[in-house]
Amino acid sequence: MWNSCFPLGLCYEFKQLIELALPITVTSLFTFTFGPVSIAFCGHLGKTELATIGLSMAVFNIAGIIVVTGLLTACDTIFAQTYGSKTRNKLSMQMKKALALITLCCIPCCALYISVEGLLLLLGQNPMVA
């Protein structure tokens, strides 16, 4: 019955779409629920702990996730163009360079993570939260 309504292979296309999208959807779901679940658990501990986890997640997202996501988003375009041009060896070289660049960009992020307590105290943050 379904094939008679949609003779152009809609079922096959839908199955292919689900096979491609399901792993990405599940990964995104787990990635985005990490923050709210952590905040909910820390919220049961107390106000100071809730403030601490909120501040730490904000610093982590701003100084880490946004930097890496921005770089990887730019790399997606370059990788797609190279893959489309059928030059596999060039794609491999670009991926190695991107990995090296992202690793180098993570060094300042790690330095910020190490010194964030001192920076927050200089900005007047409560020592219990910093």
UniProtKB/TrEMBL annotation:
Name of the molecule in the record: Multidrug resistance protein, MATE family
Protein family according to the UniProt entry: Belongs to the multi antimicrobial extrusion (MATE) (TC 2.A.66.1) family.
Lineage top rank: taxon: Eukaryota
Transmembrane segments: 20-41, 53-79, 99-123
Pfam entry (one): MatE
GO MF terms held by the record: antiporter activity; xenobiotic transmembrane transporter activity
A GO cellular component annotation in the UniProt record: membrane
Sorted UniProt keywords: Membrane, Transmembrane, Transmembrane helix
Lineage of source species: Eukaryota, Metazoa, Spiralia, Lophotrochozoa, Platyhelminthes
InterPro entries named in the record: MATE_fam (IPR002528)
